[in-house]
Fold this sequence. Notes:
6 helices
Amino acid sequence: MTTNEAARTGIDEIDRRIIQELSRDARLSMRELAERTHISRAHAYVRLDHLRQSGVVEGFSARIGYEKTGLRASALVAMSIRQECWPALRTRSAPCRSSTTDNQAPRAIVLERLQGLTGVRSTRTWLIFEEAVGPGPEWV
């Protein structure tokens, strides 16, 4: 990243290292985060608080083993939406993920619920046969 880009985004190399480590494991203790990013614990607290306050870090989440919960069928559904209907539909997500106990439930979700929404032109569904497990994207 150039100096101009860093100044424009307000994110520097330390912030990038913090983001990368949290993408790998959001449950890191502050001590471990500080060690991995080569800064003090106090500095890690300040940096993470700033990233949260500025909206760069929006939250923390868990990766779920859906099959182990009994949700053995998963699909991604993309929706083509009429532009004027976007504000009313955006909270319903496009694309969205459906994890269910069998293939009949995603079918019902797509054919009965999503395609019945006003403004949905079409849907496209991809079944998920296997999911890669690993860290989030690498930050350059």
